[in-house]
Each structure stands twice: as C-alpha cells, then as structure tokens.
Amino acid sequence: MGEWWTLLILHDAFDGYTRFDQFQQSLGISTSMLTARLKTLVADGLLERRPYRTNPVRHEYVLTESGRSLRPVIVALAAWGNQHLPPEERTMILVDAQTGEEAEPVVVDRHTGRDLDDSEAFVFTAGPAAGPAMRARYAELERRRREAGAEG
Length: 152
Fold this sequence. Notes:
152 residues, mainly alpha, two-stranded antiparallel ribbon, 6 helices, 2 strands
C-alpha cells in the first residue's frame, strides 16, 4: 500500500474502473508502471485478474473482498487530505449518493462508537504474532504511560 500509484489505482477501482485502458486514461500512468502495480495488487489479493474477452484475450481487474475492505482506509485518507485544504482546493469530496450532501468521515471503534483520534484513549499493543522486539517495544511504552499517569 505504500506506493502512491497503488492508492490511485485502488481509488479508481472503487469508482468502478476495471480495465487496463480505463486506469491508464484516468491516471495518466505509464504502461509499464500500471502493469507492475496491477501485478502487485493481484499478487497481494486486492484485485482479481479475469478475462472479459477471448479473441484477443483481454483481462479486467476486479476488487476482491480484501480489496473492497480497504475502501474505508482510502476514504479516511481522502478525508484527512481534504481536512488540510481550503474547500476550493479540494479535487474530490465524499457525498451522500442520495442527497448530495458532503459526508464527514471519522474512524470510530465499532463496539463503543468512540472516535479513535484520541491517541491516549486508544493505544497499540503487541498482537499474538508479535516477536520479542515488538513485545519489548510495547511493554516499554506501557511502562512509560503508567509512569506518566502516576505523575499526572
């Protein structure tokens, strides 16, 4: 996900683009770069490559379930970008399809509905697959939080 073209291709896929020429025309990306990014997205399981014509063979690139689950991430990134721009400089905005009213995306905890922006209320910790270095990192961060809490 770290490469800019990847995000732009996924954004276009969310807008319904599936064909190589659609991505290329929309993004102005070189053939070689688009080919490489699409191969990576397919290999990573975010897009599925499917034939849509047999003679000559042509393929389309369709979002997988895993790919579709990235939409909230793309929406959040776009919202973050728009938050830091004056309204007249925004190149796209998220709107309600029925009312046309601009949406204001936020990331919340599914269980409590609380906003996840508060980095003191919601913190990362080592997960089940974390190695020793990751576990040590988060143990140290937790120790610092407790010390800071005891002082405050």
